[in-house]
Design a protein that fits this description.
six-stranded antiparallel beta sheet, disordered N terminus, five-stranded antiparallel beta sheet
Length: about 220
């Protein structure tokens, strides 16, 4: 006896078969010049492509926060705001923003009365500061002279803090020199920056056969 599932009277949802899948909406590995990230605001002295301190065969990004006019420095993506794919399901789809961090032993980051200087990964939904997804790590949580991962995950909100549906994101890599006293020099290196979001695999145009044969039973 052969069993068949007849589907002529209904369509199977692709989402029920495939769920969601992760897609990359922005990335930078610095091998092609670092054009997907820029210098951010003026309180950071510089952000530039440099030779990997652990592997001279690779390029990485290097942040120098010494000499700034404020405690906050930022590296932004290019473009600054990134549109989310139309298949993102607000309030359900997830995001992952990640990079690798290398804190050199001679870093200009320091620990003062207010605590350790920090790095942060921030996602401002629709570019709005209030309600952003953010995480900071003190430089002293990293082992110096070693590449280590820094990753933030979460759910894409249905609306920003002003109540508007989320359609874009403004990503920031934050450098926080708490006492604004860093000396000139490299505070941290970063590499393999990536933003991923999950999207629905539901496609109303997905072709589905009218019969599925399950073979002999």
């Amino acid at each position: 006896m052969k069993l068949k599932l007849i589907t002529s009277t209904f369509m199977l949802s692709a989402a029920s078969l495939l769920g969601q899948t992760m897609v990359t909406i922005h990335s930078e590995d610095f091998e092609s010049g670092g054009g997907n990230l820029n210098g951010g605001n003026v309180s950071m002295t510089s952000f530039a492509v440099a030779v990997d301190p652990a592997d001279a065969g690779n390029n990485v990004g290097a942040g120098n926060v010494g000499g700034g006019n404020a405690q906050w420095g930022a590296v932004n993506t290019t473009p600054t705001k990134i549109d989310l794919p139309s298949a993102v399901e607000l309030g359900t789809s997830t995001f992952t923003v990640s990079m690798r961090v290398f804190i050199p032993a001679g870093t200009t980051f320091a620990t003062g009365v207010d605590g350790a200087d920090r790095m942060g990964l921030i996602l401002r939904w629709n570019g709005v500061q209030v309600g952003a997804s953010a995480q900071y790590l003190g430089f002293d949580t990293f082992t110096t002279d070693t590449w280590q991962p820094f990753e933030v995950t979460g759910v894409i909100p249905a609306a920003d803090s002003a109540g508007a549906a989320v359609t874009s994101v403004l990503p920031i890599i934050s450098f926080n020199d708490r006492a604004n006293d860093a000396a000139d020099g490299i505070a941290a290196y970063i590499d393999d920056y990536k933003i991923e979001v999950s999207v629905s695999a539901d496609d109303p145009n997905l072709p589905v056969a009218t019969e599925f044969g399950f073979g002999d039973v």
